[in-house]
């Protein structure tokens, strides 16, 4: 058995946390109070490139195998960069994303990479440092920024530091981890065992015994991770990091998330990162309720954080064919974060794939994407979502691998991912859900993603405008205004599985100037109309599609143009 075969496949008890999360979300909905104040456009900050970015998450092992060993690699990603963005603004045949997030690419014990063995070595399965540099250069040439996963919270139990530490208190590395004599009788946030025995001591490992937590109250650990960070920013020219398990860095007894110490550590860390590169972005994985995530942004602990509640409630609303849950959450998000400063997404590598959560219904997947690209926030796409890849972790014995299967490029054996035996079997839906087939189809999901990303990027109101929720006489319709000082756009979604007719919309007070506006249709099927906005930036009970109806799960996007 060689080193590659030895990659372990470990699993995490996320099912329990998801259940708790759903209960929390529901409670929050029941207690949510009134509408937020209208939001004005976020301030323009020169170096905040990420505000207008569209990100794409890649699991390198499953993206494209360039050397016929059955595993995806960095050269494979390079070969597919033109698919993501060919760098030529005149073409519309690429996806148009402007940044990628690479899941862990450093040497690790398991296939997924979240149990690091060496923080500055490229995972041998993926290639070499030279390959990584070529990837960065090729991406930057096309205007694609690259951020990498950084797993600060824990190492692998096979990392040389831990191998040394576990020899006993005399080890130089003993204090790099968290030890206790007696096993305290408490469990982790999702009921998991967190104290693991090693001889007569116990060490803390929030996720699994194979992932011992680093001790960030030890300045030597912080100094080491600063050096690691400097390496990636200065030597490897990355544009930022997705910080894994951000809320768990430093425990305070039984408080294992969102401690003051974690927040303070991050504030100092972000200063350090911006001292090296003011443009670098830190994206926090803070899998928690909005009320606990937003304070990280307010405190300047990270630049962006994923909005998990928003993602979950959007999918819930799509399945309920009623936007109410999502609308309530969107209102909370708009009020809770500084303008647009959070990361939006539909699903990620820890969740069942979008299609599988939507009964494999392409019309709802389309509406999910339209919503993602028209609300404020920085959107992230999980690889394969744009072609409707399916995959569910499973209930009894969840397998994360089911949602991390090889990317489906072509309707050929192994979906064009590899010419060898793939490390993980390709999903059986690859004959219909693949890039080649959808590339040529004007009504495919891939074409839809391309159109919506372009629309977002050519309309500043969508890319960085503020938002105001509309009120509607139809409970199945969701409408909002996106606006900058120079552009105003109305977005109207029908979440119902039936056509909706005769809807009247009301815009509460906003910053838009009084006057008569023509509506130009940017997306969707409607006749142009007129709207009169009063001196408080309002309009009331307006049928934005005179005599028209909204087809099930469709969207209308209207640009307001001042009348002559
Ligand atoms: C969160 C990551 O998203 C997940 O995939 C990983 O297993 C855990 N953190 C532990 O690193």
How would you describe what is shown here?
With 564 residues, the chain is of the alpha/beta class. It contains 15 helices and 24 strands. A hairpin with a 2-residue loop joins strand 7 and strand 8. Helix 6 runs parallel beside helix 7, helix 9 packs antiparallel against helix 10 and helix 12 packs parallel to helix 14. The structure holds 1-deoxynojirimycin. 1-deoxynojirimycin binds next to loops.
Strand segment count: 24
Instruction: Report the sheet with the most strands, covering strand number, pairing sense and barrel closure.
Output: 8 strands, parallel
Poorly predicted spans? 1-6, 9-46
Number of DSSP helical runs:
15
- Summarize model confidence as the mean pLDDT: 92
- Indicate the percent of residues in helices: 25-40%
| Order of strands, widest sheet | 11-10-9-5-2-1-13-12
The 3D shape can be described as: globular
The small molecules bound here are: 1-deoxynojirimycin
Layout of strands and helices, then pairs:
Elements: H1 14-31, E1 55-58, H2 74-79, H3 81-84, E2 99-102, E3 106-108, E4 116-122, H4 129-141, E5 145-150, H5 160-165, E6 179-180, E7 195-198, E8 201-204, H6 219-235, E9 240-243, H7 260-276, E10 281-284, H8 290-298, E11 304-305, H9 308-320, H10 324-336, E12 343-345, H11 354-357, H12 362-374, E13 378-382, H13 435-439, H14 445-458, H15 460-464, E14 466-469, E15 471-472, E16 477-483, E17 488-494, E18 500-501, E19 505-507, E20 515-523, E21 530-533, E22 539-542, E23 549-550, E24 555-562
Parallel strand pairs: 1-2, 1-13, 2-5, 5-9, 9-10, 10-11, 12-13
Antiparallel strand pairs: 3-4, 6-8, 7-8, 14-16, 15-19, 16-17, 17-24, 18-23, 19-22, 20-21, 20-24
Helix pairs in contact: 6-7, 9-10, 12-14
Bound molecules: 1-deoxynojirimycin (NOJ).
1-deoxynojirimycin is lined by residues 12, 114, 151, 207, 244-245, 285, 349-350.
